[in-house]
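To fix ideas, we now present one chain and its tokenised fold:
***
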Amino acid sequence: MKRTLGKSGIEVSALGLGCWAIGGPWIFLGKPAGWSSVDDNESIRAIQKAVEMGVNFFDTAANYGAGHSESILGKAIGSIRDKVVISTKFGYNVDEKSKSVSLHNDPEEDSNLAEHVRSELEASLRRLNTDYVDVYLIHVWGLSIERALEARQVLDALVKEGTIRTYGWSTDRTDAIEEFADTPNCSVIQQQFSVFDGNRELLSHCEQAGLASMNRGPLGMGILTGKFTKDTTFSNDDVRKFAEWHPGFKNGKPIQKWLTALDSVREVLTANGRTLTQGALAWIWGRSAVTIPIPGFKTVKQIEENCGAMQFGPLTSPQMEEIDKILGSVF
């Protein structure tokens, strides 16, 4: 299965892989933002296994593990850089030594915006051990459109210089994307999207504007794998204990509404021999031809399940309609 990154023409596997979890523990604005402990050797094996199974698209960020995720990805794909497509993100102050990430003072008053874009790219290239990035995304979700347009001028220059191939923004704000992405070099947006949540208006705009929609949270931060209950808890260094911004979590636990909804669509998602995880990914492919889900991973076993979804392809139109009908009475 292949998909194209919007106007860039860059072809990628229909499944991408998110590298947040393999960054290990780190602190974002004073709170834990990682996914607990991680085995770097297992992470490298998992990435290489994904390539073997046909995945060539990896999404990371300077933030993840305060640079650690980028470094691990760079090590894993060192000899096969020409076979993979890398997306990474910028917009924050990253302290690799303290494993912490903070704001650049006030991003709306940042007089050194252009300098930061370039210096952060240089740091990411160093960690990734490459001389170019395929997709470069603004990571500041709530950045004003005015400031984003200023950053876009620098991004256009970087495309011309060859250090990035295309760019976009990780945000769920339709108005922001409508204005920011109205340029030939912007091909990708990243939005939160799953069976249970996501901005469908933004997805429609992507379809109309020729943009690829990279989908973070396609498994609801793990809820859609079916492995959690209402009593599931997370360690103090796991971001899900503090993810009040995510609609599927409350007080550090999965909410009952999402668990109930998952039970109601379980039979459809697991039809034809799929696991729940594979069904949730198949739903995203069935939703639109421009979607590219990027589930996270920490182990080779998770990679095998995630990548195995491509063997089944998208859900059928009748299956999609059945899920819409079921969820219409839940949400």
About this structure: The two ends are 31 Å apart (CA to CA).
